[in-house]
Amino acid sequence: MTPAVPESQVLLTARGLVKEFSVRGQGGAFGRKRVLRAVDGVDVELRAGQTLALVGESGSGKSTTARLVARLLEVTSGTVEFQGEDVTRLSGAALHRFRSEVQVVFQDPYSSLNPRHTVERIVTAPLMYQGRPIPGGARAFTRALMERVGLDPDHSERHPAQFSGGQAQRIGIARALAVGPKVVVCDEAVSALDVSVQAQVINLLRRLQREEGYSYLFIAHDLAVVRQIAHRVAVMHQGRVVETGERDALFASPGHDYTRALLAAVPRIRPEWEAARRARARTRETAEGKRETT
Length: 294
Prior knowledge:
Strand order of the largest sheet: 6-7-8-3-9-10
CATH architecture: 3-Layer(aba) Sandwich
Number of strands: 10
Oligomer: single chain
């Protein structure tokens, strides 16, 4: 079941976002510098309680856009407004407050979690960094968050390497939720996981959104995943948004050639293959049942 689109106000808006990087051409350190425009005039908006998916192939600028929105990168030009306030020039305590409201879950859970720290230290670190008290104490707070994201609270003293990839990503989600954000940026947060684990993490994110009203900026290249979680979709190509729309309308009737190409590349299950798979499964179940009765 795909999520319904709730009526809600605009929470976060990006207007005219541009990000340029200075890179060297051929010749390595002695090559001439040139400017690479990774994000080129991007406009997007995220509504409260909704999921906006930014999709596109590698190098399209979607992850750079996410980092600009979260203030992990500084904009070259353009604005990011959160609840009506331009956050692109914030610093000090004001920037801390903004980062409490907008948190990030990264693609590779193992590289984004300190391997020397326990889950308890990882989850409580954002609060400690911001000088905020930990409600109920570190142990109780961590156990409650672990249970909330589907982890065993008794494992709060374990280290990231002692968890599977899906479990480690749940730790990353718990860390993001620790400061009580309104927006969670999921930067390819399920792309490194097995398909079955992807579905579990997607279901977790959807449940948390239903229960707590989080807004997600969901970065992905897999449109099959996007269809499960997004309310709106913005398609990026060569640093620009080429099409934006409600999920169902965009999937049913894409207006841009690039969007159509992306949708055409999504693997589809042919009905005859699915029927054959189900027939084989029924045959195995029948054979196993006969063995059990003999």
